[in-house]
């Protein structure tokens, strides 16, 4: 079931759903890498700013795309109830936390070139991803941003599973999902074109906003 031609179309449709926040000068924060091109479009359409929120998912053994937890930029680890059931114990979790934190720090260095991230305190903050299967990564991003004291915290995705929405609703002030299909296997099934977004593309998009 393909619902969107590509991420650009998904972002434009999402911008309509998010139009109540146009004029509030929102800060649109992308969960890398897939959502970065989307955040650029959303920020332009909503007359706001954009940046990245660096969270990394912890994948299930043998299925790294299926998130059973996530690490945020502060180093905080959150695991879903499924993590222990599939054999991720405290030692494995800590090893994953350390590994992903290194990736986060390297990405901040590579993409940000030492520039500080945009301060979300007191602002309308919209966290965007290109879709949510489990909601683990979005949940981690929401918890991390909540501590930064935004005025309003919005979670926005083109498509999400029901389980993911149930998981993140208590963590956001508003939740926007264009589609909540009954059968949800992967985010990519809802896109006609869903190429990988590379580090170089992310760096180029983030670089543009500083010029």
From TrEMBL:
Signal peptide: none annotated. It comes from the Bacteria. InterPro entries: PRTase-like (IPR029057), PRTase_dom (IPR000836). Keywords: Glycosyltransferase, Transferase. Residues 23-177 form the Phosphoribosyltransferase domain. Pfam families: Pribosyltran. One of its GO terms (molecular function) is glycosyltransferase activity. This is Phosphoribosyltransferase. It comes from Leptospirillum ferrodiazotrophum.
């Amino acid at each position: 079931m393909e619902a969107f031609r590509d991420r650009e179309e998904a972002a434009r449709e999402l911008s309509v759903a998010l139009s109540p926040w146009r004029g509030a000068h929102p800060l649109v924060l992308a969960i890398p890498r897939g959502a970065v091109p989307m955040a650029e479009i959303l920020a332009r359409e909503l007359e706001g700013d954009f940046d990245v929120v660096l969270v990394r998912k912890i994948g299930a053994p043998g299925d790294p795309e299926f998130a059973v937890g996530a690490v945020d930029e502060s180093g905080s680890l959150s695991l879903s109830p499924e993590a222990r059931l599939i054999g991720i114990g405290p030692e494995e979790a800590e090893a994953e936390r350390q590994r992903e934190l290194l990736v986060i720090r390297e990405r901040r260095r590579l993409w940000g070139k030492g520039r500080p991230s945009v301060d979300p305190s007191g602002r309308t903050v919209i966290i965007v991803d290109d879709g949510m299967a489990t909601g683990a990564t979005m949940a981690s991003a929401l918890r991390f941003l909540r501590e930064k004291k935004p005025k309003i915290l919005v979670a926005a995705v083109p498509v999400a599973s029901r389980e993911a929405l149930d998981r993140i609703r208590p963590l956001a002030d508003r939740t926007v999902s264009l589609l909540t299909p009954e059968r949800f296997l992967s985010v990519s099934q809802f896109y006609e074109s869903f190429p990988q977004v590379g580090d170089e593309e992310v760096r180029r998009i983030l670089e543009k906003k500083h010029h």
